[in-house]
Design brief:
By secondary structure, the protein is an alpha/beta fold. The chain is built from nine helices and eight strands.
Length: 266
């Protein structure tokens, strides 16, 4: 494990593998190195051609969590990793991490390419949007000591799992790992809640993202992921679309890694 120091003094922990141009992986909600081995597997596959950074976003795993939280701090964390990589990097974002990657690319000229997998943008009536006070509710639950309720609120509101299916969730082996980072679900919400309302994407948020961007989703995923990907590609200036046959939101490393490798090598 290595660390970088973000602009506000927060230590950000990461694993670094491989050699070549730098690729930084931005995890989605609840993901961190000790919890989800998928990102490490993807990093290992990409490391044959790239120097890959797999990091714990602030508040997760071995990274710090200086308060108060602000979206700008997460972007500065990513920028600190770009600097560690020599001042230039490509970025691969997953789910809500896609919005972090895109927001960072909008203000960071040293990010040279972006790839995103299934950004959770709800742009039509394909499924219900999150509540207008989604982030506030998450923060309140955590402040009240109800971290488990915060995780379940995320699962029903953002993931779209019916509440009746969550009855035995707290018996799952992954439960304790999710509880540890429950407070960071609101951090993801800060990036995506406003684009999960069933409304068209804003045309100005990523107007400055001019670098080549690959927008990917799984062929077996719900239709709203496809609608969100199409909408994102339309508002970006330099986007390419890709569909991974048979994949869903829990994408197989062996399916996505070759596609990202080819795009980043091109």
């Amino acid at each position: 494990m290595k660390t970088v120091t973000s602009k506000d003094g927060t230590k950000i922990a990461f694993d670094k593998t491989g050699a070549g141009p730098a690729v930084i992986i931005v995890n989605g909600a609840l993901q961190y190195r000790a919890f989800d081995p998928t990102m490490a597997q993807i990093a290992d596959m990409l490391s044959k051609h790239f120097t890959v950074y797999n990091y714990d976003r602030r508040g997760r795993g071995d990274s710090g969590d200086t308060q108060p939280f602000a979206k700008e701090r997460e972007i500065e964390d990513l920028q600190a990793l770009v600097e560690d990589a020599g001042g230039k990097a490509m970025v691969l974002g997953f789910s809500s991490g896609s919005a972090v990657a895109l927001d960072a690319a909008a203000v960071t000229p040293s990010i040279t390419k972006v790839a995103v997998y299934e950004p959770p943008f709800i742009v039509d009536d394909g499924r219900p949007g999150v509540a207008p006070d989604y982030v506030a509710q998450l923060n309140k639950l955590v402040a009240d000591g109800k971290r488990g309720d915060a995780v379940k609120y995320f699962m029903t509101q953002a993931v779209g799992i019916p509440a009746e299916y969550l009855g035995g969730m707290d018996q799952d082996p992954s439960w304790d790992g999710m509880l540890k980072v429950a407070h960071t679900i609101a951090y993801d919400g800060a990036f995506v809640a406003d684009v999960m309302q069933g409304k068209p994407l804003p045309t100005d948020r990523w107007a400055n993202v001019t670098v080549p961007t690959l927008v990917i989703e799984g062929g077996a995923s719900e239709a709203w992921f496809h609608s969100g990907g199409d909408a994102l590609a339309k508002v970006l200036k330099n986007a390419t679309r890709e569909n991974l046959e048979g994949q869903n939101h829990q994408v197989a490393p062996e399916s996505i890694a070759p596609v990202v490798e080819e795009y980043f090598k091109g």
